[in-house]
Design brief:
Helix 8 packs across helix 10 (370-387) and helix 10 (370-387) packs antiparallel against helix 12 (446-456). The protein is 51% helix and 16% strand. The protein starts with a helix and ends in a 10-residue tail after the last strand. The chain is rod-shaped and about 160 Å long. It has helices spanning 2-15, 22-73, 80-84, 172-207, 209-219, 237-286, 292-322, 336-346, 348-353, 370-387, 434-437, 446-456, and strands at residues 94-100, 106-110, 136-139, 145-155, 161-170, 332-335, 357-361, 365-368, 393-399, 406-412, 460-466, 470-477. The protein contains twelve helices and twelve strands. The protein has a five-stranded antiparallel sheet with strand order 2-1-5-4-3. A hairpin with a 3-residue loop joins strand 11 (460-466) and strand 12 (470-477). It is of the alpha+beta class and 487 residues long.
Amino acid sequence: MRLNLIQREQENFAGERRPWSLVTRLAVYYTVSAAVLLVAAMSILYFVVVQHINTADNLFLADTLRAVQADLADKRMVSDQLLEHEVPPGTPDLFVRVLDKGTKQVIAEQPEIGGRLSPSMFPEPLSEDRVPTEGIEYKTPSGQWFLLMSASALLDSNSPKPVLVQVAQDRSDDKQFLESFGTLLAAVLLGGIVCSAAIAFWAGKRALRPLEEMATATERVQASQLHQRLGRGRWPSELTSLAAGFDQMLARLEESFDRLSRFSADLAHELRTPIQNLGGEAEVALTRTRTAGEYREVIELSIEEYQRLSRMIDSLLFLARSENAETRLNRVKFKIGPEVDEILDFYDAAARESEVGLTRKGDGELYADPMLFRRVISNLVSNALQHAPTTGQIQVLVVMEPNQPVQIAVQDNGCGIGPEHLPRIFDRFYRVDAARSSSSASSGLGLAIVKSIMELHGGSARAESELGVGTKVTLTFPGEGEGKVER
């Protein structure tokens, strides 16, 4: 069954039509465009040449008819010698014939054309001795081409006698020239199309060479070489934005990879400590027989470590869910004051024990997820309580301005944070100093959760601190209808 499926997939793949490469597409488009232009140009050129030759021949025959009409008007008789004057020397392709208009009998002709062109082959003359501007073409059984034209004339203007003048021109040479000219144009057209295709392939490959170089450069990028960049100066202007976007993607990947590496190291370190504590306590308990009270004490200490691990895992799971694009927010509009007061009441006992004052200033309405909002404020207040001095103050400030984002700040007058630590305090497992990291209640994930929740809402979290003065964390929530679009 599996072999049949594999064979079927291979047949489907073989039957699929592979898409054309960019070089092939550019070459085909360019060649088709060049072919259309060449066909149009050659057709126009051929038409112009044909029209010029036809016009010249018709004009020549019409002038010959006018000259014969003028000469006949001054003569009483027509002879072959008279018509010799109408056929210039060196023009063996011109023929003139004069007929009696009534009887259609030949009066004179020069040179002899009776064997090739009978009088009935010529067109009827126009009325009133008018000379036509265009003749008719005739092909003899032997393959010769002639241009025929006829007109009425008067012999001897003193005692006029109507006659019929017929002129013909052998156009075999013209036809042969036009045929050769058409063949030449067809050869030039074919050669032009072939040259256009070759030039198109060459130009396409040369124009797309930067893409090949870019593909080669991207193939060298590996997890251990994320620092490489394509740069902007070496690429054509059309590829500059692509190179810039790829470099930005590499920068984001490098930053994410570094952050993931640090996170993995921090996670291993954070999990190692409670596991070592649990293992050490168990080993000590097993070194000798213990009383029930001693075993109970070991179990109680183990439970504290288990609870710490559980809190850490819950926080990590929450951070993982918050980074999922499918995470939905249950946004509603609620009053900020009552929610903040409820959180402050929860921490009131711990604050009174440390002689720390908890106050709120300002109020307003917020469009957000109430549960996540309570967790953000709770994390900030809990973090401030851990590091607030005795008889210190923690204040929650709510700032509401028309047509502006809602800002909520949690401010304390503790020891403050050094400027070198401020950019990283929202990173996972990051702690400012050893004193803070020694606290078992702190896992270094509280501010990371705050940042993730604010990003879920399309807002931001910003920290300001001064050593010896205190720390202020400001949360900026977007207004209703703004921020992250829920899916």
